[in-house]
Amino acid sequence: MVGEYDFIIGGDVLYERDEGALLSSVISRHASANAEVWIVDPVRANRSTFNRQMAALGFGVTEPRLNQPAVGASLAYEGRLPMYRRA
Asked: Is 3.40.50.2300 the CATH classification of the domain at 5-86?
């Protein structure tokens, strides 16, 4: 990843502990001043730690729930979509 981006998307990337804040620092380094960062999260235990790491780097967060009931052959999905912006 080279440069700065206005929109960064990650999916299911919070499944391992990241005590060194590697993911949040990479995102911060490559997010433009007005970037939006969306992380699709199937409710992993590491989201609150990641939220604190992002807050320490100046990002605010909103976390809408994602609730998709099973319909026909499609499976149900429940998770969250943390969306970060620099404060």
From this structure: no
